[in-house]
Amino acid sequence: MTGWTRWQRHLAALALLSAAILAIFWRDAADMAGIWWHSSTFTHCLLMVPMIGWLVSQRIALLRPLTPAFWWPALVWMAGAGLVWLVGEAAGVGLFRQLGLVLMLQGAVAATLGEKLVRALLFPLGYALLLVPFGEELVPLLQTFTAHISVLLLHLSGLSAEMQGVFVTTRAGFFEVAEECSGVNFLIAMLAYSVFAAHLCFKSRKRRVVFVLAALATTILANALRAYGTMVAAEIWGIEAAGGIDHIFYGWIFFGLVILIVMLVALRWFDRPANDVAVDVSGLDGVPRFAGRAKAVLPAALVLPLLFAGWAFLIGGRSASLPVTMTVEAPPGWRDVRAGGTAWAPRFDGADQRLLRQFGNDRGQVVTVAIGGYERQAEGREVVAFGQGAVDPGSKWAWSAALPAVEGARTERLLHPGPVLRDAATWYVVGGTVTGDPRRAKLAGLQARLLGGDPRALSLIVSSEERQGGLNAITDFVSASGGVDAMADRALKTR
To answer: Given CA atoms 200, 201, 202, 206 in this order, what sign does their dihedral have?
Structure first.
């Protein structure tokens, strides 16, 4: 068999195996592509696909003399990728499912081309991991950091400013460091750019790492300066004019300026010649280790994704009935009320049951208790997911700050234009476990789905406007109810 014929055979096998994996996990591939297309945070991924193709094309001439092989150890790679996907499917975490898909496609490359080709393609394969949409969990942290730096700079400039969570009040008006202003889209795009640039411009691994870290730090600080500049502009020209300047400046100029500054500062340390080879293939021309036959490796590589997909199908349909009516009782000293205030309701997408009641006491404290009940969790019907819970992205309420926990709850302050403040404590009841930690709730859901536990789940939220007692009212109500465990048991009628 000639070298070219061998290459044709292995590339055809790679194409067929990759197509089969994409067909099996088409939903996750479509979801990931949809995020690239619709989310401004990940639009850069549309450019990364041809960039990865270009990186591979730079290596083609160097790869031709190498011998591709069907590689048995790649099956371990694919099994690990399938496990990552299964964890994401069971826990309802799209990030893990999409990461598992990318890892499986990488495993397909390893299975059909072999160890030596993988080593030669290591950077393009690793760079493909940045195609997985991630980083939105950094939004609250970046919002808070941007707000703190902006207020600090305003004070240093002699301008008055007060901060309430991610909201800043100046003489010019009321500003929200919204999710779009957190800079997370800028940060993630800079990560993709800086990793690519570091690979092309530096040979030293240390310099590559320092360059990427410096680029990310510059991005975070620059975004805080942009927010500060917007508030200063509002002081000078008015808040409406400043908003227009900010949009144009940030959208079209700012990102380019920061990249230019980063590259100009790093230029003197570039140590990779422009004519340097894309990859050093010396030592990769020997006999492949652990090579196998196509008729053995390829069927095994195809069976593995099918096994994980089949397992997910079998465990994904289990459900258990909720009580006909979920119950929240008025504890001693409290009664049902219809209190005024600014309308608030949580978001429980896909819930099988919803409950919303208000309770008050003689001290003027008022709380709203909201429950979303699920007979089972699945995509689009999860107690922990972006946009779910106390802050509905479609409402005028916005996250403002984290608060001290009430009985382990995820406790936060919300703000409505006015401003109106509302405190909310959220618990999750998953697999019989009550927790306020979203990660523990995800883990409990994963355990319940994979090992046969109770598939039901609740999201339990107790909230109160600040003028109606706020955090103190929540604490008093939960205590009078016998604790959150007792409230969850009554809602599910387990006692």
So the answer is: negative
pTM of the model: 0.81
Cα distance between residue 405 and residue 340, in whole Å: 26
User: Which of 473, 94, 215, 219 lies closest to 481, judged by CA?
Assistant: 473
CA distance 124 to 118: 10
474 Cβ partners below 8 Å, 6+ apart?
A: 367, 406, 411, 423, 424, 425, 462, 463, 464
Give the separation between CA 12 and CA 19, rounded to whole angstroms: 11
Give 417-451 pLDDT, tens digit per residue: 878 899 999 999 988 888 999 888 888 888 877 77
433-437 long-range Cβ contacts below 8 angstroms, 24+ apart = 434/484, 434/485, 434/488, 435/408, 436/405, 436/407, 436/408, 436/409, 436/410, 436/411, 437/408, 437/410
Alpha-carbon span 76 to 79, nearest angstrom: 5
Contact between 45 and 36 under an 8 Å Cβ cutoff? The reply is: yes
